[in-house]
Amino acid sequence: MRVQVGIIGAGPSGLLLSQLLHLQGIETIVLERRTGDYVLGRIRAGVLEQGMVDLLHEAKAGERMAKEGLIHDGFEIIFNGKRHRIDLKGLTGGDVVTVYGQTEVTKDLMDARAAMGGQIVYEAENVQILDLESDAPKLTYQKDGTSHEVTCDYIVGCDGYHGVSRKTMPQDILREFERVYPFGWLGILSETKPVSDELIYVNDKRGFALCSMRSETRSRYYIQCAFDEDLEEWTDDRFWDELRARLPEETASQLETGPSIEKSIAPLRSFVAEPMRHGRLMLAGDAAHIVPPTGAKGLNLAASDIYYAANALLEYFKEGSEDGLNNYSHNCLRRIWKGERFSWWMTTLLHRFPDESPFDRRIQAAELEYLKESQATQKALAENYVGLPF
């Protein structure tokens, strides 16, 4: 079998790229080692920058998002027990974010690919990349006990941190940068009304908390915890009690509780791999970078990778130019490192670090006070939160 672009990974990145290329007449195949149900079961990001929203509309996969997504033009930060609002729309001249879960984004893209007859192979086992530096790299995999081979012009790895794509890059040219944070996020999803119409970020002496949502009737809450916490010890009641303890009394009294429909602990870390292209292989999304979720940048940075990848590949196939491909890694990384910086800053601003000194604590308090008083600092926060331009 031969296609123009082979894509590894059927998460939102791989599906979005496949859809965008298909609409321009570029033939793709997507290989995914998990089942479709497993992919849809991943509970992750929910805040979309306008750039990601625009890409979904361009991919003809934004109709349900336009109806059900929640437009947010601000969010709140709580510190010293008081709520302070960041006016995203006012500070940026009209930019907003859309709250719409990654699961829903993935489902919409799956439906869009199915409607157009997209080639997606689920449960593709032992995917390997061969002849990476040739003009015709190959993907091999097993499906139902049968071996398959796909010859491609280009391969794009959207298969996450543990996937085969980055591991195939020559190790002598690959540079990796990482910071591991000494805590995690314990999160639950519940069929309850959100405590606020906007997201609330909390810096409390007991630790960070985040009040978020997936819809007007489904809430997503997080609390900072030790990265090695035993999830079994966290009953729903214990979680709700701890969340209340980190909120001001007035906000806590409005919290609607109920059984969790999902509960998990996510470690926090920053990671970047450079370069993001070698030969006929390009990396995108978690295969190349990870950010702590504090700045809501993970899925959005993956979307910007896909923006650059789709345009570079279209330029190559339509015009015969390799300029976009040659600049792919540079263009992606320029935006990625800004997203990494913002996510690092938000994480250090809002969390309690186990090894922090009295000096560190005073500096964090001063930073929060300065943010409250300085419109210029609020504007910088808002510009990054709604998303820097592609």
Can you give a write-up of this model?
There is one protein chain. The chain is an alpha+beta fold and 390 residues long. It folds into two domains: 5-72 and 96-178 and 269-346, FAD/NAD(P)-binding domain (3-Layer(bba) Sandwich); 182-267 and 352-386, D-Amino Acid Oxidase, subunit A, domain 2 (D-Amino Acid Oxidase, Chain A, domain 2, 2-Layer Sandwich), CATH 3.30.9.10. The protein is built from 14 helices and 20 strands. A hairpin with a 2-residue loop joins β18 (277-278) and β19 (281-283). The longest helix has 23 residues, at 328-350.
Summary, kept brief:
This protein is α+β, with helices and mostly antiparallel strands and 390 residues long. Helix content is 37%, strand content 27%. Strand 14 and strand 15 (209-213) form a beta hairpin.
- Largest sheet geometry: 8 strands, mixed
- Under CATH, the topology of the largest domain can be stated as FAD/NAD(P)-binding domain
Please report which band the strand proportion falls in: under 5%, 5-15%, 15-25%, 25-35%, 35-45% or over 45%: 25-35%
Judged by helices, strands and strand pairing, the structural class is alpha+beta
Question: Which labels suit this protein?
Answer:
14 helices, 37% helix, 2 domains, 6-stranded mixed β-sheet, FAD/NAD(P)-binding domain, 8-stranded mixed β-sheet, D-Amino Acid Oxidase, Chain A, domain 2, alpha+beta, 390 residues
